[in-house]
Amino acid sequence: MKLSDIKNILPGLENVEFQLEDGRFVPEHFHVTEIGMVTKNFIDCGGTIRKEERVNFQLWNAEDYEHRLKPGKLLHIINLSEERLGIGDFEIEVEYQDQTIGKYDLEFTGKNFVLRNKLTACLAADACGIPLEKQKISLSGLKATQDSGCTPGSGCC
């Protein structure tokens, strides 16, 4: 989800609710403690230089149980970050501490924002020699060897 997407969604909501993929909700008293622009310059294992830019939201649970972040307030924080930091319309990455600090992609279900687990991946699979798909072999094409002791009628199967 891009920053423009959340800005379009927020005015139509009564509450801002974040949910983890496993169905648990981020407690209602969460705070958005940071909105920022994160730029990652790196080189992949194939030698290609890459650059990723993301808008980062950090969610935090406080002992402030009476706090509820309303859509208008979050929209105000977003607008302020765009104005003062020059944040562009990039994909949103959410930081949230569950067991440890996790980074999540963001989706919207029509009611809730869902924190989608991010996964690592090799960006240069072709340069690393990693097969794109597991090689498929036909079992009927395999021949039993004398040493294996497993031949038709031997009772091993």
UniProtKB/TrEMBL annotation:
One Pfam family it belongs to: DUF6428
Highest taxon, organism lineage: Bacteria
Cross-referenced InterPro entries: DUF6428
UniProt name for this protein: UDP-N-acetylmuramyl pentapeptide synthase
Species name: Chryseobacterium lathyri
